[in-house]
Amino acid sequence: MNSQSSPPPDVVDSVALVRSGAATPRELVHDAIDRIEVGDGRLNAVVATRFEAALQEADAVDSDLPLAGVPILLKDVGLKGEPFYLGSRRYADLDWRFSATDLFTARLQRAGAVVVGYTNVPEYLSAATTESEVYGPCRNPWDITRTAGGSSGGAGAAVAAMFVPAAQSSDGGGSSRIPASANGVFTIKPSRGRTPLSPTGAAWMDITSSKSFETRTVRDFALLLDVVAGVDPVETVGAPPPARPYVEEVGLPPGKLRIGLSSRGGGSTGPCHREALKAVADTAALLEELGHSVEEAAPATFLSDESMAIILGYWPLKVAMRAAPAEDRLGRALTAGDLERGTFKMLEQARAQTLVDFARTLDRIRDFTLRSLPWWENYDLLLTPTTGSPPPPLGLLTTPGPEARAASGLWGGLTPYANITGQPAASVPLHWTSEGLPVGLQLIAAPWREDLLPRVAAQLEQARPWAQRYV
Asked: Which of 175, 181, 307, 372 is the catalytic position?
């Protein structure tokens, strides 16, 4: 544990300090820079910095803005001119840079947030651990021999280590929730279309993905989601507007909710680790103490192995989309020498697919969703472990063989369901093992019901505060 008497301010407190005159945006940004420079040699969570530009931008921030001076790290949303290598040697060789600023980033900056750098990711964002050959492994701040998760591993580790109060993440199969579980921080994967992807991405091309954040507190996440959420005018996919700002949901009574519970499903290849089972049992008991009804129940689709099979069938198409710009720049197809073994295998799978295969994949996503939704007419939430185990050792998930396959199914098998259906899902940091490793609890809400997640998560946070636990 950190020897400091208290952690640095979260997002909400940082804004309050600026508005009261107790701190300036420059001081907040300078403190974040110091923390990164002192601590990141141990973790390797931050792979690109823009410290001088950030300090200059901080000096121009209006103190009345909703995120005035809040330092933030980005993962995969565009900031024009900044390098972005996708965890890839070939992109690094090309010195690939964003050609435009994404709407997500622009909304953050217009609200007064200051971007200090970019976080570590696996190659092509295509792994549940962050261990690329070009960046090297991102290490878990609770135990540097363990994974920080993926693909938002750098974001999760940076927030857990308190380099910044929040970091942007994204979630196409669990890529925000898995690192939140691994690092003991909070996140919500928003509904499909809730947050913008353009112009460097598009929801109709990447239909399982949502941009998000890793934060220490529920109120921070709600405030950030209010800033970035809203229909993207160039998109064809959008979520209906919420009834009120998400920050106003924090502290509101959720009422008595009917909650299903499952400790299996999603394609996990074995029973959950005993710590994951303990985590979900303890959380179920706490929810009942808070007045909710919890019972063993889950959609049949969640309990099947379909969600993992669908994601594994769809993900090679994502890899092909990410390979295309490099191939266009190089004027040739990428080969095995250009990519890591696992990434190239997925690219070959995509190349072997026909348009008919692609159509079938999309139809499987549609059919899976249609068969999933009736369950939600009778339940408000589904409670599961976010990950079926504590964070595995570095190297285990990237080593070919049956042990890695079993560990991968356990580690990442519980999250893809919500990506396929487009439902919102949170990871709440309620459990630590006897070894001091975090295990997150997943709460999946009914379609478009993000409002329930900050309400319930704030209840849990008040009952068992976690923000005082820091490394």
From this structure: 175
- DSSP 8-state class, residue 203: T
- The secondary structure of 427-447 as a DSSP string is EEEEEE-TTS-EEEEEEEEST
User: Has 268 been annotated as catalytic?
Assistant: no
Query: Domain residues of the chain, as ranges?
Result: 11-463
Query: Phi/psi class of residue 141: alpha, beta or left (left: φ > 0; alpha: ψ in -120 to 50)?
Result: alpha
Chain segment 223-245, per-residue pLDDT in tens = 999 999 999 988 888 999 999 99
Residues 123-140 have pLDDT tens digits of 999 999 999 999 999 999
Quickly state the pLDDT bin for 2 (edges 50, 70, 90).
Answer: very low
127-130 contact pairs (CB < 8 A, 24+): 127/151, 127/342, 127/397, 127/398, 128/173, 128/174, 128/175, 128/178, 128/397, 128/408, 128/411, 128/412, 129/153, 129/392, 129/394, 129/397, 129/398, 129/411, 130/87, 130/154, 130/179
Residue type, 5: S
In the 8-state DSSP scheme, what is residue 241?
P
75 carries an active-site annotation = yes
CB atoms inside a 10 Å sphere around CB 302 = 25
Q: Which of 88, 151, 176, 263 is catalytic?
A: 151
Q: Which of these is catalytic: 14, 75, 132, 427?
A: 75
Q: Is 175 a catalytic residue?
A: yes
Identify which of 58, 60, 83 has the alpha carbon closest to the alpha carbon of residue 72. Answer: 58
Q: Report the C-alpha gap between 142 and 148 in whole angstroms.
A: 9
**In CATH, which of 3.75.10.10, 3.90.1300.10, 3.30.429.10, 3.30.465.10 is domain 11-463?**
3.90.1300.10
